[in-house]
Write a structure and sequence with these properties.
Radius of gyration: 20 Å
Order of helices and strands: EHEHEHEHEHHEHEHEEEEEEEEEH
Distance between the termini: 25 Å
Protein name: Eukaryotic translation initiation factor 5B
Family: Belongs to the TRAFAC class translation factor GTPase superfamily. Classic translation factor GTPase family. IF-2 subfamily.
Structural class: alpha/beta
Domain Tr-type G: 8-227
Bound molecules: guanosine-5'-triphosphate, magnesium ion, sodium ion
Largest sheet: 7 strands, mixed
Strand order of the largest sheet: 2-3-1-4-5-7-6
Organism: Mesorhabditis belari
Number of helices: 9
Helix content: 25-40%
Number of strands: 16
Shape: elongated
């Protein structure tokens, strides 16, 4: 397939971390929504997907020192939210299995917790590059928030005791990562960042917005400079079923993460099901507006064709028995059906 860095797809970024570290809140701040408050018990129980367009990235990043809007070459981010509760290990595994990068959210007040360690193991095993969000910096005693400033510039203007508490806490996190055999440093430490072994940490407050621009700018820059080859859009279909969901009025639908290639209305699809491979036809493709969450029942819009990377709701007959976490195929020639069914059997 033809590859070109002029035609980058959105990087897929998975947000992982222990329960209540602020993963959903961070996405709410990016989207300017309030999904987290609507969750039962404040606990995420499904995988989510949000498309963050380039304009929204640029707007967030303007505050970041040394940031130039023209440098953002990706068309956006596709951000996958996952649950941190211990009982959803399968969803963390599924979400992290198809992402290009991850944001590992750590509560600065708590350090590395059980599902943080579990998430680190997933990322290391799959060689997924990740950035640590050192979240809840607003909880540093006497911290004054300023979401419109570069977080490092802003931290430099805090009272001395705030700076000392920050240093003490992040150094504890550095030690905890070292115990896992990993080197971490703040993302503005140019000397350490020159060493590819170091994993960057960005101080954030998902609640107040501080540092979110720095985090997004860092990911955009890293994605383009180090991984543009991987992000070159290709036509060959790469799609995975993330969730199987009954939606009132729509029947049982599947939420699909389309990494590369296109899905079109009326495409014949083949996917794995409880009783063996399912062959069906796409009756509709739906997506929420940009900056809206795929897992929230909102006003979806219908599309005739969708190009990766996107999170998309696929409507088709017979999805009640579909299995999540496995690939979705499109039949291009009639004689492919047997082959694709066999692929599903093997999965
Ligand atoms: P799960 O999806 O259930 O694993 O949790 P989560 O990581 O998505 O965390 P969530 O966004 O649900 O936030 C948990 C709690 O922490 C909520 O009460 C948030 O308001 C709060 N919170 C999140 N980020 C911050 C932050 O930066 N500062 C402060 N003070 N509170 C935060
Ligand atoms: Mg959540
Ligand atoms: Na939560």
């Amino acid at each position: 397939a033809e590859k070109s860095v002029d035609n980058l797809r959105a990087p897929i970024i998975c947000v992982l971390g222990h329960v209540d570290t602020g993963k959903t809140k961070m996405l709410d701040t990016i989207r300017r929504t309030n999904v987290q408050d609507g969750e039962a018990g404040g606990i995420t129980q499904q995988i989510g997907a949000t498309q963050v367009p380039r304009d929204a990235i640029v707007e967030r990043c303007k505050q970041v020192r040394e940031f130039r809007a023209a440098d953002v070459k990706v068309p956006g981010f596709l951000i996958i939210d996952t649950p941190g509760h211990e009982s959803f290990a399968n969803l963390r595994s599924r979400g992290s299995s198809l992402c290009d990068f991850a944001i590992l959210v750590v509560d600065l007040m708590h350090g590395l917790e059980q599902q943080t360690l579990e998430s680190i193991k997933l990322l290391v095993k799959r060689h997924t590059p990740f950035v640590v969000a050192l979240n809840k910096i607003d909880r540093l005693h006497m911290y004054e928030s300023s979401p419109r400033k570069d977080v490092y510039v802003h931290l430099g203007t805090q009272a001395n005791n705030v700076k000392l508490e920050f240093k003490k806490r992040y150094e504890e996190v550095v030690v905890q990562f070292a115990e896992q055999g990993l080197n971490v440093c703040l993302s503005n430490d140019k000397k350490k960042m020159a060493d590819p072994d170091y994993i960057p940490m960005v101080p954030t407050s998902a609640y107040c917005g501080d540092g979110i621009g720095n985090l997004m700018a860092f990911i955009a820059e890293m994605a383009q400079s180090k991984y543009s080859d991987r992000l070159a859009f290709i036509e060959e279909l790469d799609a995975t079923v993330m969730e199987v969901k009954a939606i009132p009025g729509l029947g049982t639908t599947i939420d699909v993460i389309l990494v590369n290639g296109r899905l079109k209305n009326n495409d014949i699809i083949v996917l794995s099901g409880i009783d063996g491979p399912i062959v069906s036809q796409i009756r509709d493709l739906k997506m929420p507006e940009p900056l809206r969450e795929l897992r929230v029942k909102s006003e979806y819009r219908s599309f005739k064709e969708i190009q990766g990377a996107q999170g998309v709701k696929v409507l088709a007959k017979g999805m009640e028995k579909a299995l999540a976490g496995l690939p979705l195929y499109v039949v291009n020639q009639a004689d492919e059906i047997d082959l694709l069914q066999a692929e599903c059997e093997a999965a």
